[in-house]
Automatic annotation (TrEMBL):
Name of the protein described by the UniProt record: Nitrite reductase [NAD(P)H] large subunit
Residue stretches making up the Nitrite/Sulfite reductase ferredoxin-like domain: 2-54
Example GO molecular function: heme binding
Keyword Heme among record annotations: yes
Nitrite/sulphite reductase 4Fe-4S domain span: 63-204
Keyword tags: 4Fe-4S, Heme, Iron, Iron-sulfur, Metal-binding, Oxidoreductase
Coiled coil regions, renumbered to chain: none
InterPro entries with a match to the protein in the record: NasD-like, NiRdtase/SiRdtase_haem-b_fer, Nit/Sulf_reduc_fer-like_dom_sf, NO2/SO3_Rdtase_4Fe4S_dom, NO2/SO3_Rdtase_4Fe4S_sf, NO2/SO3_Rdtase_FeS/sirohaem_BS
Entry's EC annotation: 1.7.1.4
Species this chain originates from: hydrothermal vent metagenome
Length: 243
């Protein structure tokens, strides 16, 4: 569900899976996704197969990776919206899904400073304004709440994407394993991030290019492999009971 968007086809496919496999609970999450709970382990490949057939990619709810990109409706449906926040969020998620990180990584795009998508407590948050986009980094809404630092302001969607890729790549290359962006930025300083991502255009483009190159090999749905190709089939076979 890219950027929290969905369609009748996707919702029908999810409902069919819930009925077919007798899923006991489904929940809309804070990240604007739908979780299915209580699926039997041996049913997982078939569940993934049905959802893949409807055009959906399984999420990375527990990975050290991009989790979700949360969006508001933006100027399309809200009188306060200044930019197409939903479209920007969808594109951010499509270019970054599957990317592995030192820790979980969350993004959001709010269509105006009212900040309905809570972009200022995300690892990378975009707040749309009349003149373009504010780029925020290093937020955390967890145990230790941290409001983002303002990285910079840009004018175009293309800059939003380039800066996001550069920031993610710098984080992946420099942060410690299991270090969220908030403590990483507090450790190295915002000026360090600005130096490599905002002030040095050549380095920013190089970071973004390395991110793009890595995504050529990372955007593989591991659940689809198990659903259609029988990868690791033994993981979903029940142990034989003896005696």
């Amino acid at each position: 569900m890219w950027g929290g968007l969905t369609t009748p086809k996707e919702l029908r496919a999810i409902a069919d899976v819930v009925d077919k496999f007798k899923v006991p609970e489904m929940k809309v999450t804070g990240g604007q996704r739908i979780d299915l709970f209580g699926i039997k382990k041996e049913d997982l490949p078939a569940v993934w197969s049905d959802l893949n057939a409807a055009g959906m990619v399984s999420g990375h709810a527990y990975g050290k990776s991009l989790r979700t990109v949360k969006t508001c409706v933006g100027k399309t449906w809200c009188r306060f919206g200044t930019q197409d926040s939903t479209g920007v969020g969808v594109e951010l998620e499509r270019l970054s899904w599957g990317s592995w990180m030192p820790h979980k990584f969350k993004m959001a795009v709010s269509g105006c400073p009212r900040n309905c998508a809570e972009a200022t407590i995300k690892d990378y948050g975009v707040v749309c304004v009349d003149s373009g986009y504010e780029l925020h980094v290093g937020g955390n809404g967890g145990i230790t709440v941290r409001v983002t630092d303002l990285l910079c302001k840009v004018e175009t969607e293309e800059e939003v994407y380039e800066y996001s890729k550069a920031f993610m790549q710098l984080y992946r290359e420099e942060a410690h394993y299991l270090e969220r962006t908030a403590p990483w930025i507090e450790r190295v300083g915002l000026s360090h991030i600005k130096q490599y991502v905002e002030e040095d255009a050549e380095n920013r483009k190089a970071l973004a290019a390395r991110f793009d190159e890595s995504q050529k090999y990372a955007q593989i749905d591991p659940w689809a492999e198990r659903a259609s190709e029988g990868v690791a089939k033994h993981e979903f076979t029940s142990l034989k009971q003896i005696g």
